[in-house]
Design goal:
2 domains, 8 strands
Length: 142
Amino acid sequence: MKKKSLYLIILISMLFGLVACASTNLAKVSNEPADLVGEWEQVNSNSEDSWQEATIQGETITIYWVSDSGATKSLYWAGTYVAPTTTDEPYSWDSENDHSQTDSSLLASGDDTKTITYENGQLSYSESDFGTTTTVRLEIQK
């Protein structure tokens, strides 16, 4: 009798644990598109004192090269931002370069468009320097 009661208690505890996990995972599911507005910082830089950071505001995305541990910023990209309208991932848009801003910056991209992708909490895009292409990954700063 004690064994049956012990098994029943264990079974009920496991059931409550499964229900708690399921409800936690359901709370993470959202029917709203991701809100990408905010400040983003590169998470895969090969340097401790230089990286890229981006700001998404309104219908624009601005990306800077940051160096000297944050003391220096140089414009890399100024372009359009198109907010997601669904929860589908990956989400990508082709940002159109605002050449009126980037043409006067020595470190800015000269590309007319840049494909930017959002997936798993990260923005990513390709960046090329001196014949080497890198995928830059950024995460939003809280």
